[in-house]
From TrEMBL:
This is Acetoin utilization protein AcuB. Residues 8-66, 82-140 form the CBS domain. It comes from the Bacteria. Keywords: CBS domain, Repeat. InterPro entries: CBS_dom, CBS_dom_sf, CBS_domain-containing.
């Protein structure tokens, strides 16, 4: 059975918990990513996703103008919008178990941690689909 380690994104881009929501938005856009592990001095503090940011921002029906919204988000720490208890798996988790976790909880990604809870990667839905495509095209991939 193939393991998460083979398909995960190693060394994911992270953001420190003292950063602001606007910094996270800019980082996600710049790096073309949809989720950011939030770190506190090298330890996982949570996760911030594009959807969490969208849900956190004021609606388009707000009376605030763009600059006021930008100002508010530039003063708001990521800890206000993040999930402080992200789902995690280990590198040696079977890919099928991780995929089941993604499916059951309607997740788009999970953090991959070592035995000391250090972040070593992230397994996204895109990674899982890449694995599915590779396995369907060449079933021998599972035996490697």
């Amino acid at each position: 059975m193939t393991k998460v380690e083979k398909w995960m994104t190693r060394n994911p881009i992270t953001i420190e918990k003292g950063s602001t929501v606007i910094e996270a938005i800019h980082l996600m856009k710049e790096k073309n990513i949809r989720r950011l592990p939030v770190m506190d001095k090298g330890r996982i503090a949570g996760i911030l996703t594009e959807k969490m940011v969208a849900d956190f921002k004021p609606s388009k029906a707000t009376s605030l103008d763009t600059w006021e919204v930008h100002y508010i988000l530039s003063k708001t720490p990521v800890t206000e919008a993040m999930n402080p208890t992200p789902y995690k798996v280990r590198p040696d988790t079977d890919l099928t178990d991780a995929a089941q976790l993604l499916h059951n909880h309607k997740l788009n990604g999970v953090l991959v941690v070592d035995d000391n809870d250090n972040l070593v990667g992230i397994l996204t839905m895109t990674n899982a689909l890449e694995a599915l495509i590779a396995i369907c095209r060449n079933p021998e991939v599972c035996r490697q």
